[in-house]
User: Fold this.
Amino acid sequence: MLAGRDRCLFKLNTAIAACERCPRLVQYIQQVAHTRRRAYLHWEYWGKPVPNFGTAEAKILVVGLAPAAHGGNRTGRLFTGDESGNWLFRALYEVGLANQPESLHRDDGMELHHTLMTAVCHCAPPANKPTREELQNCQHWMKATLRCAQEWKVAVTLGRVAFEWTLRALRETGVEHSVKPSQFAHGAEFALPHGRWMLCSYHPSQQNTFTGKLTREMLRAVFERAVQLAR
Ligand code: SF4
Assistant:
């Protein structure tokens, strides 16, 4: 029997998975799940909004942009089953926030420690680009997540879009701050009220990792700092 924050997160995740606020995205994720990619023809795709992953007692929030069409939208878990996730989970594992370095599918035994993974858009968007209206719609879930996981101390935002929409959600849930979206930079950190912090990282997308804009060391350093601040 779940209680308190865990119950809140369970109910929230159930509601997220059933959301149909964005017709374009709902149609897209269902279509991807139906057609599938050749390499995953044996998979039964999730094909729904992808809920949060981790603990409601989290001290560290990891905020991504959106699930990948053949990653989270296939496996039903954020950052699971794609190259971005491989980078992210390895970094989390190396700093002690995950129990294993690889995230392959929903039943692979992955556990996060003191961490909750969320996204500013819970549906995989075409070309990884949600519209502003879709991001606005999904703020409802971001704000509900922030209300459930009230114990967080550090929010690590992956990429400029996640940074901008987390800033908005914070303000709209009563966390006053003067941080502006234009202040995004890899490794930047911002003090928030009540001893909280916000950290920025480039998103571990292939566009950044293949080009060397983001290295494994750079990503791990951000999470090392998050662990330090969360203590
Ligand atoms: S993007 Fe968010 S608001 Fe839009 S349908 Fe998906 S879960 Fe719902």
Observations:
- The chain has a mean pLDDT of 97.
